[in-house]
Amino acid sequence: MDDAPARWTRATAYPDMWTDPDDDPRTGEGAGPDGEQATLRDFLKSYRMTLRMKCEGLDAEQLARRSVPPSTMSLLGLVRHLAEVERDWHNWIREGDPLPTLYGDPDGDFNGAVADPAVVDAAYADLEREQAATDAALAGHPDPGERVGRDGIAVRELMVHRIEEYARHCGHADLLRECVDGRVGQ
């Protein structure tokens, strides 16, 4: 007997997609954005949306469900982790003392991802707040070659690193979601 959920998707046009192209909120009309900064922001927006899509429709228990022992990874843990790293990126940009971590110890983002609706709501609120703070801090630096913060990191490097972090974790989210309820797709 196998406890694995049956694989499924909502897509009807392409069975390996998460949703049909006409229903995908990540696809825009016409040509892509103009310029390097706009392109980077567009890719980041798409990966942020992908993470949200991979979590939608799940309850607190499903979001907090761990992958495979001894891993502490869960979809809720990923949301919390990305809130934590958004804060860290904001610390790279800002002058002065860094803001404290959100979840305490180095693994607090994953270890604290428990099946409690209040924890889920707080995680999404943390993520939105930290994304907005980092986005606002970067908005004042339109030149991708400008160096910012105490370490003099280039805005371009920071943006690419953010995209890479979301892309990697969206890959994790694909597998985690499939383990929870069998939903697959791009």
Automatic annotation (TrEMBL):
Kindly indicate where the leader peptide sits in this chain. none
* Lineage: superkingdom: Bacteria
Question: Where do the record's region annotations for Disordered lie?
Answer: 1-37
Q: Which SUPFAM superfamilies match?
A: DinB/YfiT-like putative metalloenzymes
What is this protein's record name? DinB family protein
